[in-house]
Amino acid sequence: MKTLLFKAADRGSADYGWLKPNYYFSFAQYHDPAKIHFGMLRVLNDDFIGGGGAFPTHPHDNMEIITIPFTGALKHKDSTGGEGVIKAGDIQIMSAGSGVQHSEANASATDPVTLFQVWLFPKERNIEPRYDQRSFDVSERSNKWQVVVSPLDADDALWINQDARFSLANLEAGKEISYTNAFKGNGVFLVAINGKVSVNGEELNKRDALGISEAESFTITATEDAELLAIEVPMN
User: Fold this and answer.
1) Sign of CA pseudo-dihedral 192, 4, 150, 55
2) pLDDT band at 82 (very low <50, low <70, confident <90, very high)
3) Residue 197 in contact with residue 171, Cβ under 8 Å?
4) Nearest partner of 40 among 220, 185, 215, judged by Cα
5) Domain 12-135: CATH architecture, name and number where available
6) How many Å apart are CA 45 and CA 67, to the nearest integer?
7) Of 19, 29, 116, 208, which sits most exposed with the smallest number of CB within 10 A?
8) 186: Cβ–Cβ under 8 A, 6 or more apart, which residues?
9) CATH H-level, domain 138-233: superfamily
C-alpha cells in the first residue's frame, strides 16, 4: 500500500468575503507542484459560501463535477435546463462534456452553505452535457458505505462518466470498516469529513485526507465518531 497524507492545516486557502475555500489541490491562486491531482481526481474544494453569495454564470467542459453539501442549501442552474436546490443528504453531479454554462448561489440571504466540490477528469471526452441530483437516506451509511456516485448499475447511485465511485460512511467510535475497490488498479482519496480515524498507521483528524494507491482494499478504524468520504478513481 502506498499512501500520501494531506493534512487539513496544509491546504491552500483564500478569503473572498462571501466565499472562503480550502483547496486540497492546486486551484485558482493556490499552486503546489506536489498537489496537482490524485489520479483522475483534479479538484477537491472545501467551500464556505456566505449568505447571498453566488457564482455567476460561467463555463466548464470535459470535467465531472460533484457537489456534496453539509449545511445550508445551494441553488444550481445550467444551460442543459438542469436546475435545483441541494442540501445536506443530497448529491449533485454535472457532466460538463462538450461544454456547459452554469451558476450556483446560496439559497439563503443570511445562512451560510458549506460543501465539498469535486472535479474528476472524464472517461470519455465531449459527451453531451448532463445534470442530475438525488437525495440519499443518511441512516443508510451508519457503520457501512453508502455509494452515492458510480457508473455501475448495481450501485444504484448517480451516474458518472468515469470508472470512479464516491462512498460515504458514518462510523461510530471503536468500529472498523473495510473498503474494497470496485475497479482493479484504482486508488482511493479518503477524507475524514469529521471525527478521527486511523488507516495503516496514519491518523486522520477532521478534514485530513489520505491518498491510497497500490492496494485493492484497506481497513479504517474510528478512534472517535467519524464521517468519511471515499473517492475511488483511476490512477492513470
Assistant:
1) positive
2) confident
3) yes
4) 185
5) Sandwich (2.60)
6) 10
7) 29
8) 39, 163, 164, 232, 233, 234, 235
9) Jelly Rolls (2.60.120.10)
